[in-house]
Amino acid sequence: MRNLLHAGKFLLLDMASTLFFLAVYLLTKNIPLAVVLGIALGAGQIGWEIARKRPIGSLQWLSLVLVVASGTATLITNDPRFVMIKPTLIYATVGVVMLKPGWMNRYLPEIAMEVVPDIAVIFGFVWAGLMFLSAVVNIVVALNFSVVAWASFMSAYGIVSKLGLFLIQYSTMRVTGVRRRARSAVLATAY
Length: 191
Description:
Layout: H1 2-14, H2 16-28, H3 31-51, H4 58-77, H5 80-97, H6 110-115, H7 117-144, H8 147-190
Helix pairs in contact: 2-3, 2-4, 3-4, 4-5, 5-7, 7-8
C-alpha cells in the first residue's frame, strides 16, 4: 500500500495545477479565477522545487505550460467550446509525452525498478493509449452534448478511467514483482 501511495503522490503533485484549474472552474464557473489560481499553484510548485534544488518532472512542467497556454487562450476567446475542446489538446499532448519509454520511472519505488522495469515500460505505453482515447472521447462529447452534460460525463470518465488503469497497473506490477522475487529467491537457494 505504501508503494501505491508513493506513486499516487507524485502523479497528483505533477498534475496538481491542471486538476486545481479544473476543480475551480467546475465549482465556480469563473474562468478568470480558475486560470489565475491554476497558474499560481503551478508556478508556486515549480518555485518550491527550484528553491529546494530538486528536479522538476516533465509532467509537472507540462501541466504548468498547459494551464498557462490554455488558460490564456480561454481568457482571450471567452468561448465555452474552447473550454470544452481544450482537454482534447491536453490529453493528446500528455499522450505524446507518455510515449517516451521510462517516463514512469519517477513514480515507481526502487523495488519496482529492480524487479519489473519491463512492465513499467509497457504500462507507460498503455497510459499513452488511454490519453489518446480520452482525447477522442472528449472531442466527441464536447461537439455533441451540452456544456453541463460534457462537464458531468468527462469528470466521471476522467476519474474512473485513470483510477481504473492506475489500480490495474499497480496490481499487475505488484503480483508480477512478488512472483519474480519469489522465483529469484528459489533460484538463489538452488545454487
